[in-house]
Amino acid sequence: MNDPYQPVPIKFPILIVDDNRLQRSVLEANLKTAGYDVVAAENGKEALEIFRKGHYPILMTDWIMPEMSGLELCRAIREEESGRYTYIIILTSLDSKNDIIAGLEAGADEYLVKPAHQAELTARLKTARRILELENARNKYIEEIKSLSLIDPPTGIFNRCYMDEHILQEVKRAYRYERSLALILVGINRFSETVAEFGHYSGDVLLKRTAECLTESIRKDVDWIARYGEDAFMVVLPETDTAGAMIVAKRLRLRITTMTVKMYDKELRMTAGFGVAGFTASQQKPGFTTEIFLDKVDRYLCQAREDGGETIKGVQIG
Prior knowledge:
alpha/beta; Rossmann fold; Alpha-Beta Plaits; five-stranded parallel beta sheet; 10 helices; elongated
């Protein structure tokens, strides 16, 4: 039975580099005997090309080779920004302290004096795997922390920080492919009054229910929503013009008005105002910014709220 507290073994091919065909074949056979998949290269230049096309967390390279030495290969790999760590083992017949230091300074993690004994080879690879598993766990933890930092706690949807970054990406994508993009800013009516009457918890309930309603009403994996302000949500609609966004806003208005929230002995009927803005990007008309986009949709929500009720105000930009 597997121990759930043990890290899941990482499976991957090992990239080996040696210009000596016999020694390369022996090393490849030993690694395969130990249960590893192996990809072999005969010089550093070829190895670097292979490395750039795949994922090789462990690299074992000879030191002295034509075209590109093992040290040069180490340096080149360390300069690559792949986002994933590569554990590098230098294979060398040079065993002086200065040579070892030179290899480590070039970016190697470990060294083996040739010919490598099978037991020593297996032991060094266990160390490599342990380091890589720790690195994998660390990266996973960092990604989880990063994800949490982009989530709005009361609602579980994206927060303003995520929105600011990704709307910029959506605008750039719209320009790249000359496509439409639209925003709907949804503002909950009487939010402050509800919180004043029922307490802050009631505000969290209203926000969560509204977020759920919006999420259920948009295209999965295409549209997305984020918390915009105290009582407002931004709905981002790629590949959608203003006319299409107005239709979506009307659908959202209907969904929200049919929703009630039970608060102690009362049932609260929810309503919202809507600001809509959209544009169709053209490379012949650059200069449109996210600031302009957000300002427009914010202004139209303000106008909708001034008109009261469940008003929808929208504009096609450009």
